[in-house]
TrEMBL record:
Pfam families: Orn_Arg_deC_N. The active site is at C365 (proton donor). It comes from Actinospica durhamensis. Keywords: Pyridoxal phosphate. This is Pyridoxal-dependent decarboxylase, exosortase A system-associated. Its cofactor is pyridoxal 5'-phosphate.
């Protein structure tokens, strides 16, 4: 990890209002919410912001494209149940997530299960549940076939394709070149032939997801065009009509002042052209899906932690808080980022003009536990609440909660 020396000011364009100077979540002042929760640190997710984001995405998508929520972004049960009432389907990456998804009102046929290294017991659970298994390898197909024969239930399968193109601008590349994800595009026709020779699986279609956390509209649009062209070509070798086409997602959210929010309208127009020009003509039976996680929930959450100490060290001011990287690893820059950038951060009780430059650090015994480096914030004292924004995705469940044995933070949906 490489630290930056850029100072970060308190962000002012987050979707959370202040009431009498105090930040609110779901209309509840954070100091009162902290009392209601009973302890800090904690995560809080705004129900109305989740609903508004899904509504905005649906408004941009053309007719005929469904919206799926990637549970891995945030599997908190109350949030997941709320999201399940708003979207058309769910995507899971483990049987733990699968069990949570099956507890919602989303029917099993609208749940997809992706990820390399699915174990045979997991495959048995998925086949028995009737969800769509997204194939990652030839070996996985053969194990699925054995499970289907044993259970007497034809598995519903789609092929996850590792495309022969990469996506420029993605924070994490999941396609192009050698990958542990999916089946290389050039190997897919042979796999489709094997699927066609079996009577124990039901072929549905394809899933291509080449990159995540992308803020470049043209890059996303180009990837969607390349994905549709690739699937249209692969469909000629399919053992049946393509009835499921997961175009992935990868829509990014801004984490720093220099990041610009995505233009959903431009993405929607590109998808409308693809539907009209190619998909409805070449793949008329396909149920087309955009799968999003971070984009739907990331900006609707905050991580709230309390200052427990304030200290000076050789000219630098440190605010020591009761949270840290064991709950919010991504905010410390230790979750797949080469260059650390501060997440948007604020003092819950103050938005005044006076500021000071501080380091906000957790209480773990590691110098990696830095939530904000050289941040310009209003003066904060012991007992004040510090708020990290963009905390609705890849927060608690993407963090090393067992490290040093501190208790897990509560999560609340407000």
């Amino acid at each position: 990890m490489t630290s930056t020396s850029t100072s970060t000011r308190e962000i002012t364009d987050v979707p959370f209002a202040r009431e009498n100077g105090m930040l609110t979540v779901g209309g509840v002042p954070l100091d009162l919410l902290a009392e209601r929760v009973g302890a800090t640190p904690f995560f809080a997710y705004d129900r109305d912001l989740l609903t508004q984001r899904v509504r905005a995405v649906r408004g941009a998508l053309p007719a005929g494209i469904e919206l799926s929520y990637a549970v891995k972004a945030n599997p908190m049960p109350a949030l997941l149940h709320h999201m399940s009432t708003l979207v058309d389907g769910l995507d899971v990456a483990s049987c733990g997530e699968l069990r949570k998804a099956l507890d919602t009102t989303v029917p099993a046929r609208r749940i997809s299960f992706a990820g390399p290294g699915k174990t045979t017991p997991e495959l048995r659970q998925a086949v028995a549940a009737g969800v769509t298994l997204e194939l990652e390898s030839q070996g996985e197909l053969r194990r699925i076939r054995a499970v289907s024969r044993d259970l007497g239930v034809p598995a519903r399968v789609a092929v996850r394709v590792n495309p022969d193109f990469a996506v420029r601008g993605s924070g994490m590349r999941l396609g192009g070149g050698p990958q542990q994800f999916g089946v290389d595009a050039e190997q897919v026709p042979a796999l489709l032939a094997e699927i066609g020779s079996a009577g124990d699986v039901e072929f549905l279609g394809f899933h291509i997801f080449a990159g995540s956390q992308n803020l470049e509209v043209e890059s996303i649009c180009a990837a969607q065009r390349a994905t549709v062209d690739l699937v249209a070509a692969l469909a000629d070798a399919a053992p049946g009509p393509v009835r499921y086409l997961n175009l992935g997602g990868g829509f990014g959210i801004p984490y720093a002042d220099r990041d610009k929010p995505l233009d959903l309208g431009a993405i929607g127009e590109n998808l409308a052209d693809l539907m009209q020009d190619t998909i409805t003509r070449r793949l008329p039976e396909a149920r087309v899906v955009i799968e999003l996680g971070r984009y739907l929930v990331g900006e609707a959450g905050v991580y709230v932690t309390r200052v427990v100490d304030r200290k000076q060290s050789r000219g630098r001011t440190y605010l020591v808080v009761d949270g840290g990287l064991h709950h919010q690893l991504a905010a410390t820059g230790n979750l797949g980022r080469a260059i650390r950038r501060n997440y948007p951060i604020a003092v819950a009780s103050s938005a005044g003009p006076e500021t000071e430059t501080v380091n906000v650090v957790g209480r773990l015994c590691t110098p990696l536990d830095v939530l904000a480096d050289k941040a310009d914030l209003p003066p904060a004292e012991i007992g004040d609440l510090i708020v990290l924004f963009q905390a609705g995705a890849y927060g608690l469940t993407a963090s090393p909660t067992a490290f040093l044995g501190h208790p897990d933070p509560p999560e609340v949906l407000v």
